[in-house]
Amino acid sequence: QVPLVESGGGSVQAGGSLRLSCAASAYIFRTYCMGWFRQAPGKEREGVATIASGGSTSYADSVKGRLTLSKDNAKNTLYLEMNSLKPEDTAMYYCAADRQCDGIQDYWGQGTQVTVSS
Question: What is the spatial distance between Cα 12 and Cα 27, in angstroms, rounded to a whole number?
Answer without folding.
Answer: 34
